[in-house]
Amino acid sequence: MGISFTEKHADTVDFTIQADEHIYSKKSQFQKIDFYKSKEFGTFFTLDDILMTTEKDEFIYHEMISHIPMAVNPDIKTVLVIGGGDGGTVRELTRYPTIERIEMVEIDEMVVRACQKYLPQTASMLGDLRVELFFEDGIKYISGKKEMYDLILVDSTDPIGPGEGLFSKQFYKDCFVALKENGILINQHESPFYENDRMEMLRAHSKIKGIFPISKVYQFNVPTYASGNWLFGFASKKLHPIADFKRDEWEKFKIYTRYYNTDLHCASFALPTYVREMLEKA
Amino acid sequence: MGISFTEKHADTVDFTIQADEHIYSKKSQFQKIDFYKSKEFGTFFTLDDILMTTEKDEFIYHEMISHIPMAVNPDIKTVLVIGGGDGGTVRELTRYPTIERIEMVEIDEMVVRACQKYLPQTASMLGDLRVELFFEDGIKYISGKKEMYDLILVDSTDPIGPGEGLFSKQFYKDCFVALKENGILINQHESPFYENDRMEMLRAHSKIKGIFPISKVYQFNVPTYASGNWLFGFASKKLHPIADFKRDEWEKFKIYTRYYNTDLHCASFALPTYVREMLEKA
């Protein structure tokens, strides 16, 4: 007999996975952390009973957060990852020999240690020599930093609990200041379909577009997230995600990806009309 | 106290909707038909406990099955819809004043009658004077017909029960013969993520690409379908979905759509690498 994990995608909508084993359950200073093994998704983990990462579909999220900005500016050398405790975002970044330094600031060390033990598929590259880990509050970490990064990736939970400040106006302003003149900010941007996710999507977008000259949103499908229709924000000081897209330069890296490709790059910025309209009004 | 409806997205993955009311439950000659009312999705119905259509997200499926081919050939006059008992596909087609005739062949009259009563949002245009309804087996209906249609839309259930023959090689061959020289076939093409759906997707694609000179697949997000990542096939004798895309001509119809738009048209054919590779090998 296994054990089941249920996430509420909305008040009256449940997504339930029959797991084979509940292999880890601890409360950190910040949140409840659980790891499960399952037939369908392999190992997966949850924070405060919200599904974060599964072995089966994590490639989608991690490729889409990292390769989109790298294909707009292949000269990115210095990256700051905020959150991203499972290490999947860092893993994708380490595939670029041209990246020189990756700082990862994750508030909850217990998440990282558990992922290193139970989810090596995502966490295995955290020991790369270019990576430095900081177990700190990303909001404090970035405050006061000036023109230090080519790229900031906000790989956060939903805006409740420890992730909340990563959706604040002050935080986005600090990101703007911390970015160099070609800098790009990618942030976890929630989803347009269910009411709660949509509200957070709109709040985030209205803040970011008041700060960055270029502020776009792109979509991708994560089967294990509510509605499957998930978004990242692409904000920058100068670079446009499509006008400045360097298709040929990116292809030269010869990085094999399972979800991202250079056709999908432009396509992911073409949003359904109802999403586009909501974002325009935000 | 409400009632809950659960669909198995995979053997160990459940999607559950807390409904307020179970308003209809009957067995037809072909399948079990159930209608529910729910807070999140409005009225929705299921066939053999597989979710078909919800008031909240039906616009996505119905816009994407109809407007994509209409924007490739805006001169389409004669359309055959096979399946599509909820009427949503016909509703979208009736928005084109240029379409002269729509034949809808649905095997199960009880589905249509129940939708007319409980789901007028989709079924309301079935009385349009250009529409003729046939309650027959689509496989028999199309057999022997020659160069009669500009467009055939296969708006079917999954390939189990009454929908099974609509995924057969002979049926696709009959569609080819029944289409005029500019003809387009759109078919419900399942989904790449969960094993069962993926197998049906590959079987359908391998059959169609052996018959039609042009055979492409496009994607869209249906939040209430397994994984959210759903596909339609676009097959034709001559017209290419992107090279022959008539953006300006379609815009002139001034049809307001909530999901489809002319940017999304091309974008929907850009598939994730893992899907593209599976289809190429099929």
Q: How would you characterize the overall build of this protein?
A:
2 copies of one chain form a homodimer. With 282 residues, chain A is an alpha/beta fold. Chain A folds into 2 domains: 3-54, Spermidine Synthase, Chain: A, domain 2; 58-281, Vaccinia Virus protein VP39 (Rossmann fold), CATH 3.40.50. Chain A is built from 10 helices and 12 strands. Chain A has helices at residues 58-72, 88-93, 109-118, 120-123, 138-142, 169-178, 195-209, 247-252, 262-267, 273-281; strands at residues 3-10, 13-27, 32-38, 42-47, 50-54, 78-83, 101-105, 131-134, 149-155, 179-188, 214-221, 229-236. The first copy, chain A, has a 7-stranded mixed sheet, with helices on both faces. In chain A, strands 1-2-3-4-5 form a 5-stranded antiparallel sheet. In chain A, strand 1 (3-10) and strand 2 form a beta hairpin. Chain A is globular, with a radius of gyration of 18 Å. The mean pLDDT of chain A is 96. Strand 2 (13-27) of chain A pairs antiparallel with strand 2 of chain B.
